[in-house]
Design goal:
Blueprint: H1 8-53, H2 65-77, H3 83-95, H4 108-114, H5 120-132, H6 137-144
Length: 145
């Protein structure tokens, strides 16, 4: 048999404190997963660029590498490895060659939209605005267009 809580107000503060702790932990977990996804996509892009270039400054063109990678990675790891997504991973590494310049405040989808901006200065502007104004991907896309 449950005992009746003596001070309901203090009890509600306890529940609120626990709730805040749970929400903060969930947010940190989401942030950590996002950062790891960005890092993995950046590293995949790096591997592709290094493989393509074989130590040369520029890659050979006309290779079916991205299509082959897409097929092999999809069969091994499931979705998320379309040819276009692998291309974006490659571009991600090319445009952000220092991983520390990538912010975990934006998602992979944000970066996919930013990579469509060919002008480096404009891309940097949209990236900073998206961070400062906490833009959703939809808002970022609207601002770019």
């Amino acid at each position: 048999m449950e005992k009746k809580i003596q001070n309901i107000e203090i009890y509600h503060k306890l529940v609120d404190s626990i709730g805040i702790t749970i929400e903060n932990a969930r947010q940190r977990a989401i942030q950590a997963v996002n950062t790891e996804l960005l890092k993995a996509n950046w590293e995949i892009g790096k591997f592709i660029v290094e493989f393509e270039q074989h130590g040369n400054e520029k890659a050979e063109y006309g290779s079916s590498l991205l299509a082959n990678l897409s097929n092999d990675l999809k069969s091994r790891f499931g979705k998320g490895f379309s040819k276009s997504n692998i291309y974006l991973m490659r571009q991600f590494y090319i445009k952000y060659q220092i991983f520390q310049s990538v912010t975990g405040k934006l998602t992979w989808t944000h970066y996919a939209e930013l990579l469509a901006v060919s002008n480096d200065h404009a891309r940097g502007f949209y990236e900073k605005q998206a961070i400062n104004d906490n833009w959703s991907v939809r808002e970022l896309k609207r601002q770019i267009n």
